[in-house]
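Students often ask why inverse folding is considered easier than folding. One informal answer: many sequences map to the same fold, so there is more than one right answer. In these notes we will look at a single instance of the problem. The structure comes first.
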C-alpha cells in the first residue's frame, strides 16, 4: 500500500522561491570585482534568477545544456546558481585556478554552451576561447559600460545587458528531481579530470542535512561567509542551505587575503564562516599581528584538508570561536562528516574535548560509511583499526559524467581513497590519502599526524610530511616546512619538538625548509609536485 502524501519533486527552484517568500528582506552582500561592496536581498536574487532563466530561454538553450561559470563568490554567481539549474540547465562551475589547457579540456568534455565569467578572468578566457569548441555565448559578469571594446572574444556580451532586459516573471518548470542540476570536475591527480554530476534531489537533500544542528547548524539568525569558492563543489552547498534557512550571505569576491576576510567578518557581523585551513592560516596571522578580536563570529567549518589541532585551539582558546572540523569530497556534494560533540563529552575537560574535536567528525544522516582491510573485510569501529574508507548515500556519486574512469562503486559503496579510523562513538579520523600513507618497517605512519605536530610549533606556517625511500625501512618520513615570516627554528629544534608527542619511530628523519609548498587548484598541498621537487634529496645516513 502506498502512502497518501503529496509527491513534490525536490527542485532547486523551490529554494529561491522559499527564500523570496519567507526571507525576502534577507541580505546578500558581495565584495565585487569592481572593488565596492554590493548589497541586495533574496527578493532581488529571486527576480534576477528568473531574468537569467528568461535570458537562457531566449538563447534557445536546451534543457540539460551546460552553462559554465568562471567566477568568484558573489551575487551574480548566486543568480546563475538558481537561474541555470532552476530552468533545467546544468550549472558547470569551472575552477579558474586550473591550467588553461585543463580548462579547455574540461569545457570541451562537458560540452559547455555558454560561459559566464568575472572580468578578473578575462585573460584566461582570451587565451582559451578559440579552443573551447562547444561554447557559443560568452558573457562577462559586469555591466555594459565595463565591457571591453576590443576583447577579441566573438559576440561577448555583458551580463547586465544580457539578462537586464528580460522579464522577472517566469514560471519555474517542474521536472524529475533526479535531473542533473550542476557539475564539478575533480582535480584528478592521475588521468583526466572526472566530473561529479549532481542532481536536484541530491543537492536539496545535501543542503537539508548540512543545515541541521549537528552539521553546520544554520539558521535565519546567521550571517554566513563562504570563503570556500562557489567554483568548487558548490561552496560546500552553502548557497543552497543558506536559501533554505534564510541566512544572510556574505561573499568575499576576489579578496581572499587575511585582512579583507577579517574586515568583512566584522563589517557584516558574520556569525558563521567556511573555508580551507590555508585561508584561516592567513587570517589568524593577520589578527595576531594586529592584536585583533572578533565581535560576532561564533563558529567556522574547516575542511578540504586536515585542520591542524593548533588552529582549532587558536580559534577556540584565543578567539572563542567553535571550529567544526568537517570531511568530504567533490564526489560527496561534499559533506560526509562534521565534528560536533555529543552530550557525554560536555562534562569532559578541555584536553579531552580537544581530542574529539581534532577528528573529522561523525557521519551526518544520509551518509553511511565503513572501513575495510586489504582483503575487503570490514574493520571494527574501535578508533584504532585503520583501513580504506568507503561511503554511500543519496548525495554520493554513482558514477562519473560520461562514465569516465569506469564503474567506481564496490558492491554499492564509493571508495574514497582515504584511509581512516572510526571510534566507537562513530567519529571518523582521516589518517591519510591512501597514496600518501608512509610505510616504514611494515607499519604505517600517518602523514597528517606528523604535520599536525609540526604545525603546533610557533615558528611553522605550513608542513607537509612525505615518505622517502629507505634501504632498510622501505620508507621514512621527512617533514617539509615553511616558516612563518620572521620566525626562526632549526632542524634540530623542530625534530626535538616531536619528542614525547609521538612514537619514536614515527618522528621524521629530517626537516627540509622550503619557501613555499605547492598548492593545487583547491588549496590542497600537492605532494606529487613536492616529491618531484625533492627527487634528488638523500635521507641523512646517521
Ligand atoms: P576534493 O574532492 O577536492 O574536495 O578533495 C577531497 C579530499 O580532500 C578527501 O578525499 C580527503 O583526502 C581530503 N579532505 C577533505 N577534508 C578533509 C579533512 N577534514 N581532513 C583530511 N582530509 C580531508
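Output (designed amino acids):
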Amino acid at each position: 500500500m502506498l502512502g497518501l502524501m503529496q509527491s513534490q519533486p525536490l527542485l532547486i527552484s523551490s529554494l529561491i522561491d522559499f527564500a523570496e517568500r519567507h526571507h525576502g528582506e534577507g541580505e546578500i552582500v558581495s565584495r565585487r570585482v569592481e572593488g565596492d561592496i554590493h548589497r541586495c536581498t533574496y527578493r532581488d536574487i529571486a527576480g534576477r534568477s528568473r531574468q537569467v532563466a528568461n535570458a537562457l530561454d531566449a538563447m534557445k538553450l536546451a534543457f540539460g545544456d551546460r552553462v559554465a561559470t568562471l567566477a568568484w563568490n558573489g551575487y551574480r554567481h548566486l543568480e546563475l546558481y538558481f537561474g541555470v539549474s532552476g530552468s533545467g540547465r546544468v550549472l558547470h562551475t569551472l575552477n579558474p585556478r586550473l591550467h588553461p589547457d585543463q580548462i579547455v579540456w574540461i569545457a570541451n568534455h562537458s560540452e559547455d554552451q555558454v560561459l559566464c565569467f568575472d572580468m578578473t578572468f578575462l585573460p584566461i578566457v582570451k587565451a582559451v576561447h578559440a579552443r573551447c569548441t562547444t561554447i557559443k555565448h560568452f558573457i562577462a559578469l559586469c555591466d555594459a559600460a565595463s565591457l571591453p571594446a576590443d576583447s577579441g572574444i566573438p559576440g561577448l556580451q555583458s551580463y547586465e545587458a544580457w539578462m537586464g532586459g528580460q522579464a522577472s516573471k517566469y514560471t519555474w518548470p517542474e521536472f524529475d528531481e533526479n535531473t542533473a542540476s550542476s557539475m564539478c570536475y575533480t582535480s584528478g591527480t592521475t588521468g583526466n579530470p572526472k566530473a561529479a554530476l549532481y542532481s536536484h534531489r541530491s543537492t536539496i537533500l545535501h543542503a537539508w542535512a548540512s543545515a541541521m544542528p549537528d552539521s553546520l547548524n544554520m539558521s535565519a539568525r546567521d550571517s554566513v561567509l563562504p570563503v570556500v569558492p562557489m567554483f568548487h563543489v558548490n561552496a560546500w552547498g552553502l548557497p543552497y542551505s543558506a536559501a533554505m534557512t534564510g541566512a544572510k550571505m556574505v561573499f568575499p569576491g576576489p579578496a581572499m587575503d587575511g585582512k579583507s576576510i577579517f574586515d568583512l567578518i566584522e563589517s557584516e557581523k558574520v556569525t558563521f564562516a567556511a573555508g580551507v585551513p590555508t585561508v584561516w592560516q592567513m587570517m589568524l596571522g593577520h589578527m595576531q599581528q594586529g592584536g585583533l578580536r572578533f565581535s560576532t563570529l561564533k563558529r567556522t567549518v574547516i575542511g578540504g584538508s586536515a585542520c591542524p589541532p593548533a588552529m582549532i585551539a587558536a580559534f577556540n582558546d584565543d578567539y572563542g570561536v567553535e571550529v567544526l572540523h568537517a570531511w568530504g569530497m567533490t564526489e560527496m556534494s561534499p559533506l560526509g562528516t562534521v565534528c560536533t560533540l555529543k552530550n557525554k563529552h560536555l562534562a569532559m575537560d578541555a584536553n579531552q574535548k580537544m581530542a574529539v574535536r581534532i577528528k573529522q567528525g561523525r557521519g551526518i544522516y544520509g551518509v553511511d560509511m565503513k572501513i575495510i582491510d586489504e582483503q575487503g573485510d570490514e574493520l571494527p569501529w574501535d578508533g584504532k583499526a585503520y583501513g580504506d574508507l568507503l561511503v554511500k548515500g543519496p548525495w554520493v556519486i554513482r558514477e562519473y559524467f560520461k562514465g569516465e574512469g569506469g564503474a567506481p562503486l564496490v558492491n554499492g559503496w564509493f571508495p574514497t581513497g582515504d584511509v581512516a579510523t572510526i571510534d566507537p562513538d562513530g567519529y571518523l579520523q582521516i589518517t591519510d590519502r591512501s597514496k600518501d600513507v608512509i610505510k616504514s618497517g611494515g607499519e604505517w605512519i600517518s602523514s597528517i599526524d606528523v604535520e599536525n605536530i609540526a604545525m603546533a610549533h610557533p615558528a611553522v606556517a605550513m608542513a607537509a610530511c612525505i615518505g622517502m625511500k629507505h634501504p632498510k625501512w622501505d620508507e621514512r618520513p621527512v617533514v617539509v616546512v615553511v616558516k612563518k615570516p620572521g620566525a626562526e627554528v632549526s632542524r634540530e629544534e623542530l625534530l626535538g619538538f616531536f619528542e614525547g608527542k609521538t612514537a619514536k619511530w614515527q618522528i621524521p628523519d629530517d626537516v627540509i625548509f622550503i619557501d613555499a609548498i605547492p598548492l593545487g587548484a583547491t588549496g590542497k598541498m600537492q605532494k606529487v609536485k613536492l616529491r618531484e621537487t625533492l627527487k634528488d634529496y638523500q635521507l641523512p645516513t646517521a
